[in-house]
Design brief:
about 250 residues, alpha/beta, 7-stranded parallel β-sheet, 9 helices, about 15% strand, oxidoreductase, SDR_fam, Sc_DH/Rdtase_CS
Length: about 250
């Protein structure tokens, strides 16, 4: 089944895995919605990278934890590029490494509002919009970026983040069964220790090399390596794949 141009909305696409996915989608000639929360400069740089790679892109500001923002984001994407073929739910945050006993309610609320509520709002909106382009011969696709933390638990680091990603694994299973009859595929990618800004934002920049060296491949992964998995799941090449959790973890 050949590749074809697609209209793809990616949340949290101004940096890290989201940005790498946008860039790779651009290289396929796809049209990409670059969602960002606060850093307009980084989002505009991502747009330029997509267009330099051969695609088209638009930057869309949205706080995914706010329902009105999410609806407006999907509206903006459709206004610019037409019906959406695929959505990547990638936006997420992590807080400073610490055991659960030291976490405040404010921290927990912040993580769960963005990572769980935000993802569910985006998934709900995708479930409402993707049927416009989905057929048996041309399935639409929703890819959720979970994490190996969902099965490892991240003890003494961020069990709140791990729990939020566990919710993504469950969402993938349930929503794939809801949307399968509508020709919409739902899958998750679970990255392991990946070279992005998330480790520094958790207050542990050395974690990348420390944990990466424990994998069977003896190194951390790159955002581009995760992006390859995401783009494959978005594409018609994965036309019979749904309800799957694809680990990109170097074997850990």
């Amino acid at each position: 089944m050949p590749n074809r141009p697609m209209n793809i909305l990616i949340t949290g696409a101004s940096r890290g895995i989201g940005r790498a996915t946008a860039r790779l989608a651009g290289a396929r000639g796809w049209k990409v919605g670059i969602n960002y929360a606060t850093n307009a400069s980084a989002a505009n740089e991502a747009v330029a990278e997509v267009e330099s790679a051969g695609g088209k892109a638009i930057a869309i500001k949205c706080d995914v934890s706010k329902e009105d923002d999410v609806i407006a984001m999907f509206d903006a994407m459709e206004k610019q590029f037409g019906p959406i073929d695929g959505v990547v739910i990638n936006a997420g945050i992590v807080a400073k490494s610490m055991p659960l006993a030291e976490m405040t309610a404010e921290r927990l609320r912040s993580v769960f509002d963005t990572n769980v509520l935000g993802s569910y709002l985006c998934a709900r909106e995708a479930a409402r919009r993707l049927p416009a382009t989905a057929t048996q011969d041309r399935t639409a696709s929703l890819v959720i970026v979970s994490s190996a933390a969902a099965r490892l638990g991240s003890p003494n680091e961020y069990v709140d983040y791990a729990g939020s990603k566990g919710a993504m694994d469950t969402l993938t299973i349930g929503l794939s069964k809801e949307l399968g009859p509508k020709h919409i595929r739902v899958n998750a990618v679970r990255p392991g220790i990946i070279d992005t800004e998330i480790h520094a934002s958790a207050g542990d920049p050395e974690r990348l090399e420390r944990i990466g060296g424990l994998t069977p491949l003896k190194r951390p992964g790159g955002a581009d390596e995760v992006a390859e998995a995401v783009v494959w799941l978005l594409s018609p090449l994965a036309s019979y794949v749904t309800g799957t959790h694809l680990d990109v973890t170097g074997g850990r």
